[in-house]
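Predict structure. Chain length: 418.
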Amino acid sequence: MNKYAVRCLQCMQIHDPYSMNCKNNDTSLLRTEYSAKQLMPLDLPGIWKFYDWLPVNGIIEQGSGKTVTYRSEAFASELGLDSLWIAFNGYWPEKGAELMTCTFKDLEAFPTMQRLKELKETRVMVVASAGNTARAFANVCSITGQPLLLVIPEASLHRLWTIRADSSSICLATVEGDYSDAIALAGNIAARDGFVNEGGAKNVARRDGMGTVMLDAVLTSGQLFDHYFQAVGSGTGGISAWEASLRLIGDGRFGSKLPRLHLGQSLPCAPLYSLWNDVGEVSATCPEGMYADVLFNRKPPYAITGGVRDALEATNGTMYAVSNEEASGAQALFEKTEGIDINPAAAVAVASLMQAVEQGNIKPDDSIVLNITGGGQKRLMQDYQPRQLLASIAVSADDPCAEDRIVEAATEVFGTRL
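Prediction complete.
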């Protein structure tokens, strides 16, 4: 029996396990179905302990980390919560947390790369990112040698650092524009010969990798939670938590009620919050003025079958819009009480939880998991000396020759592989 199958949520047909899209052109996400109905953690490193619920047939052992879940005391006490669990994704060696890019994007990068290995893919993988995803894919490609073209907004360049000695498999292109501009350019380039798209939200490896946050939290606590908090850009992490929860309900040992999704965005640019609450368009100036601009995605997978709207409706979920002042205060309080630094996006999740407490959306004795999507970067700088990745090419989103110029730069880096 196959380890897993991939099914379209609209036509309900089984597809090739490496598919990204429905062969019948349905506008739906595909979803993984695993032959193992109960989750049995394996004695494997990092994320691979959840191997039975990852769409892979092998592992990349070097560099793999995972979520570390623990029960909060000091921060929970500040909020008057009895059962608050922290799902920490980052670097915190004292707790055994070793995601060396300090972001949970590592959880999606490793399974995605493993599937490319299984396909014997030699084309250049193209990834668009506002920074954290690019850092995660740069990390794993430095390990495997997979040729990688990163397309990022120019303003995100400072986030592209690595602890790896060899980054010769990476071509980095910066775009004078926002994340949506980077996505558009990357998508067009990925359609060319010699390149391959990593798939974004449509990639079941990315979603199931991120879903391991929920798996780790539930296995650690012993039961499904009443509430799940996370900051989101595209919202794919929220979809992943929902899908993982469905599998855990199917397991039969952890409860039968879906955790309620509480997803936070950073003002003044909160597209998902605007869509969910029907409060108008997002400003054309975005992502200017955001506390966590990595959370900005102008075209998130909201209305697609299996997308963010479906996840929120299925879980009786809600969206939060967090001001810069709220995010800054939440970050300071968390770092003071928990003793570890966190990324701005994670601060938005913390602020969302604080809003929920103030609004009475959760009760003091509810069980809650807070996904800290990135943290420990300051802690990592004490132990390592990361180096900045340098851009191979800089283009403007308004330049009609931008695609050709990026492809030319990639050809110089990768030579005969293109």
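Summary: DSSP finds 13 helices and 17 strands in the chain.
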